[in-house]
Amino acid sequence: MSDNEGAIVQAQNYSLRFENRFNDGPENYEDFDQEHFSDYDGFDEGEGKFGDENGLGTDENGNTVVAGGFGPEEFQQQEARRRRTLKEKAIPKEDRTTTPYMTKYERARILGTRALQISMNAPVFVDLEGETDPLRIAMKELAEKKIPLVIRRYLPDGSFEDWSVEELIVDL
């Protein structure tokens, strides 16, 4: 027997031992406890159509029905646990609390993003006057406040404020 054939036989023996360890076979199925299945009839004692005080009931087929969440208390609890949508997290323009000045980090990100867009042949909103450098064109657009981007400032509570470049005060 070659080394390769010996390795195959060892692998087959290992897989048989593995299967025998975890597969008891159909002869042991009658040992299962029937009350673990959903069609068990032991739940029918004295329950109404909508269930008992715990919300457990049965339907016409004998299946267990769990009812809950009918009252306003459950609705309020669910509403409190619900995540706020993006629209609910937005702060209106008149309620903004952050500064109207563009930070140096926002300026760098705006210029870099707009320069990348210009280098990918996005339309330019200022007169070029022979300028070919995308960063210089983006700086010129920022000076004239013609960059069509919005800055989103996140607050610690998860809400945010949206500022357009035209609204922000830029120190050049």
TrEMBL record:
Q: Which residues form a coiled coil?
A: none
Q: Does the keyword Phosphoprotein apply?
A: yes
| Record GO terms (molecular function) | DNA binding; DNA-directed RNA polymerase activity
Q: State the compartments where it is located.
A: Nucleus
User: Where primarily located?
Assistant: nucleus
Q: Which GO cellular component terms are attached?
A: RNA polymerase I complex; RNA polymerase II, core complex; RNA polymerase III complex
| Region Disordered, annotated ranges | 20-93
Family annotation (Pfam families): RNA_pol_Rpb6
Key words of the record: DNA-directed RNA polymerase, Nucleus, Phosphoprotein, Transcription
Family affiliation: Belongs to the archaeal Rpo6/eukaryotic RPB6 RNA polymerase subunit family.
Q: Which PANTHER family match?
A: DNA-DIRECTED RNA POLYMERASE SUBUNIT K, DNA-DIRECTED RNA POLYMERASES I, II, AND III SUBUNIT RPABC2
NCBIfam families reported for this sequence: PRK01099.1-3
* Protein name per UniProt: DNA-directed RNA polymerases I, II, and III subunit RPABC2
At the highest ranks, the source species' classification is: Eukaryota, Fungi, Dikarya, Ascomycota, Saccharomycotina
